[in-house]
Write a structure and sequence with these properties.
homodimer, 300 residues, alpha+beta, six-stranded mixed beta sheet, four-stranded mixed beta sheet, 25% helix, globular
C-alpha cells in the first residue's frame, strides 16, 4: 500500500462486513429494526445529501417488494442495508453520465461503501435465475449468496468479482500507455484486461500487453489493487519491463499506444492537478488505479 | 515472480490463447480440421499417457453432442480443443481423490494446460442457462463466452475467475498458520478467503485474518499469484505483519490457528522434501501457493 498516495478510490469503507451475521438469520432479523439504515439509491446511482455524503433512510423507505442486502454494521453498530428494487431487475439501462460527477463529491469512505453496495445490488438485479438449471433463485445469507429454489438442484451462487490486470510497461526509461476508443480526447492510460481461467496475474499481464501492443514484457511486479464497481471488477495494478519497444497495435482494442518519457508523464500528472491540459497527453484521473501506477512510477 | 522457486503449479502453459481467433468464426472453423488436437478427459480428470504427459486425440474422439472449447494454439500452430461432454452437464460429482496423484505426474506446462481447460469445461457444464432471464444459453467465441438464446435478452456471460487472497502473517518473527477441518492430519497452511465486491486485495487480507483468527494485520504486500482450477480461483498470495499475537479462532472456519517459529517452518518445509514428517506441523505441498509463501518467508 502506498502511504504517500491519495487513497485508492472505492477502497476504505467504514462498514464492518460482519460476515458472522450473514449466516445467522436470528441476528440478521434483530438488526432489521427501526435503527437499521437503508442506503438510498437513484437507480444504481448514489443519492448525495447536503453534507456531501451518502444519504441513508430507514428500511421503511425500501420498496415493499425489494430484496434487502446486508452491507454490514456501521461504526454505531447499526445494520446497514441496500434494496434490490423491482425496477432494477433485468435492467440494462446505460450508466448515468452524471454518475462520475456525483461520485467525485463523496468522501472516500462513502465512495467505497457506495461502490461495494452498487456492485452487490447490480449483481442481484442481473442474476435472478440459476445458471445450472434455469430455475428462479432466492436471496440467501443477507444477500451474499443466491440459492436455486429448485429442490432437485439447490445450486449456490455467489456475487461475482472479476479480476482485471492493469499495467504500465517500461522500456529505456519510457512508459507504454494506450488509448481506448471510448476515452475522452488526449487521454492515455495503462493497458488492461481480464484475467482468464488458467493464468496467473503475471501471465495475464504479459498476454494482454502482447495482444494489445505486441510488446513482450518481463519481470512483472504488483503495485496496487482497487475494487472497481463497473460492474464488479478487482483491478490488479502491475508494472513490467520490455527490452524491445516495437509496438503492434490491436486496432480492435486500442486507438493508439505509444511510449511516453518520464518528463511527459510528470507533466501530464501535474496538468491534472492544475487543469492546464497542454501536455503530451491527458493522464488518467485520480479515481483510476492507473493514476496510482503513473504516480508510483514517477516516484521510483 | 520468484526465479529461485519451483514453478507455480497450474501456471506456465505452452498453449497460446490466440484471442484473435476466438472472435473470427472463419479462422476457428479452419482450425477444426484433422490436425486439431482434443484434450482427452476422464470426466474432468486428465488422461495421462505413457510418457507422463497429457493425452490428446483428434476432434473425432469428441462425443458428437459435445460442445467444443478452443484452448488456443500449441507450439506447432495446431488448434487445441476440449469437449464439454453431455455427461458433465449439470453434474455435481465430487472431485476424484486420485486426481492429485494424477496431476503430480504431469510436467508443469501440461498441468497448467489441464488446469485452464478443466476450469473452462467445468464452467460450461455448470452454466447452461442465462442468470438474467433463465433461458438456455449457447457457446460463443470458441467457448470464451456463452450467449443467451432469448432474442429479448441476449445477455453475454463470461467464464468466471474468483479472486482469493491467501496470506501469511508475521509477528515477533513468528508466522501465523491455520488448519481447516478438511486438511490431512498435522497440516497447517496460510489462511485464505474470497475477495468480495467492494474491497481491495489488501482489505480482503485484513478482513479474512481478523475474521478467522482475530488478528489485526498491517503493511500487506503481494508475493505471488496462482490459477487454481477448483473450480476456478485466482489465488493472490500476500504477506502482512501483526503487532498483537493474540488469536481468537473462528471455529466455523478453522480447527486451529497458531504461531510457528522460523525454525519450525524451515524444519517443516525440509520435512516435505525428505518425507520425514516429524516436525511441529506438515507444510503445504509444492502444488499450493501457500508453499511458495512459506518458502518466500524463509528466504527473507
Amino acid at each position: 500500500m502506498m502511504a504517500s498516495a491519495p487513497p485508492i478510490a472505492f477502497a476504505g469503507s467504514m462498514i464492518d462486513r460482519a460476515d458472522h451475521i450473514r449466516s445467522a438469520p436470528d441476528k440478521l432479523g434483530e438488526l432489521m429494526n427501526w435503527r437499521a439504515r437503508l442506503l438510498l439509491l437513484d437507480g444504481l446511482d448514489p443519492v448525495i445529501g447536503d453534507d456531501g455524503g451518502l444519504m441513508w433512510g430507514t428500511l421503511a423507505d425500501a420498496d415493499p417488494l425489494a430484496e434487502l442486502v446486508f452491507l454490514g454494521l456501521n461504526p454505531d453498530g447499526r445494520g446497514c442495508f441496500a434494496a434490490v428494487a423491482p425496477a432494477l431487475i433485468g435492467s440494462t439501462a446505460p450508466p448515468n453520465p452524471r454518475l462520475w460527477a456525483a461520485m467525485a463529491q463523496l468522501p472516500p469512505a462513502d465512495l467505497a461503501t457506495y461502490g461495494g453496495a452498487k456492485a452487490l445490488v447490480d449483481w442481484h438485479a442481473r442474476h435472478r435465475f440459476c445458471a445450472r438449471c434455469g430455475h428462479a433463485t432466492v436471496l440467501a445469507k443477507g444477500g451474499w449468496q443466491r440459492g436455486c429454489a429448485n429442490e432437485a438442484c439447490k445450486a449456490e451462487h455467489f456475487p461475482r468479482v472479476d479480476p482485471v490486470t492493469i499495467m504500465t510497461v517500461e522500456c529505456d526509461g519510457m512508459l507504454l500507455l494506450g488509448r481506448q476508443p471510448r476515452f475522452p480526447a488526449r487521454r492515455y492510460s495503462a493497458l488492461a484486461g481480464f484475467v482468464e481461467p488458467g493464468e496467473s496475474v503475471e501471465e495475464a499481464v504479459a498476454r494482454e500487453i502482447f495482444e494489445e501492443a505486441g510488446v513482450r514484457v518481463r519481470d512483472v511486479r504488483y503495485v496496487a489493487s482497487q475494487p472497481w464497481p463497473f460492474p464488479s471488477s478487482l483491478m490488479i495494478g502491475c508494472h513490467g519491463y520490455a527490452d524491445d519497444p516495437a509496438i503492434v497495435i490491436d486496432k480492435t482494442e486500442l486507438d493508439d499506444a505509444r511510449w511516453f518519457t518520464r518528463a511527459e508523464v510528470e507533466y501530464a500528472m501535474n496538468d491534472l492537478k492544475i487543469g492546464r491540459e497542454d501536455g503530451a497527453f491527458l493522464a488518467p484521473p485520480p479515481f483510476a488505479v492507473a493514476h496510482h501506477l503513473l504516480k508510483w512510477w514517477i516516484e521510483q
